[in-house]
Amino acid sequence: MAIATGARPVVGVLALQGDVREHAAMVERAGARALPVRRASELSEVDGLVLPGGESTTMSRLLETFELLEPLRERIAGGLPAFGSCAGMILLARQALDGRPDQQQLGGLDVVVRRNAFGRQVDSFEADLDFTGIEGGPVHAVFIRAPWVEKAGDGVEVLASVPEMPGSDDAAARIVAVRQGAVLATSFHPELTGDERVHRLFVDLVRQA
């Protein structure tokens, strides 16, 4: 779907569960038009899609219930730009460790993630991250029982990792933001900080796709 010069791309926000309203507000601030997506017909109208934070196993079941799982897999495989935060990152991964056996993956990213990885060590925390591709200084990141990327494939660009933090040896240097083509994912919740730079990065990807 071509986007006319100067036009606002339509960015869907998967509206089954999670931080839907917060992501929609940030998408609008980043220069796109936000559209809640609950049905395949709505998915067909968007130029890109945000998969919000929430509970990944619940979202996986709801994707099947709302008959969105296969249409979404097909659109992502066909090049639909997608951005997942926290639970959204888990859904986009090709494999999730410590998940339920029946959890479904969308496979848009060649990464292996570990669910609730930070929860066992430092639970919820905040950190300032150097983020490749984003200007204006570090990105302040809010982690809430977040996953991390355990393994990234050769085609995956690592955008951010957790810095050294006192008392958090297990968390240091863990990968928390990645990109593969038009698919972007973060372990943290950029929709909660008031800083729309990560969303602007995604909207730029949507415009370029």
From TrEMBL:
Binding residues for L-glutamine: 54-56, 115, 144-145
Molecular function via GO: glutaminase activity; pyridoxal 5'-phosphate synthase (glutamine hydrolysing) activity; transferase activity
Keywords, sorted A to Z: Glutamine amidotransferase, Hydrolase, Lyase, Pyridoxal phosphate, Transferase
Pathway membership: Cofactor biosynthesis; pyridoxal 5'-phosphate biosynthesis
Source species of the chain: Amycolatopsis azurea DSM 43854
Complexes and interactors: In the presence of PdxS, forms a dodecamer of heterodimers. Only shows activity in the heterodimer.
Protein role: Catalyzes the hydrolysis of glutamine to glutamate and ammonia as part of the biosynthesis of pyridoxal 5'-phosphate. The resulting ammonia molecule is channeled to the active site of PdxS.
EC number: 4.3.3.6, 3.5.1.2
Cited HAMAP family: PdxT
Gene this protein is translated from: pdxT
InterPro entries (alphabetical): Class_I_gatase-like (IPR029062), PdxT/SNO (IPR002161), PdxT/SNO_CS (IPR021196)
Name assigned to this protein: Pyridoxal 5'-phosphate synthase subunit PdxT
Record: active site: 86 (nucleophile), 189 (charge relay system), 191 (charge relay system)
GO cellular component, one term: glutaminase complex
Record field: catalytic activity: L-glutamine + H2O = L-glutamate + NH4(+); aldehydo-D-ribose 5-phosphate + D-glyceraldehyde 3-phosphate + L-glutamine = pyridoxal 5'-phosphate + L-glutamate + phosphate + 3 H2O + H(+)
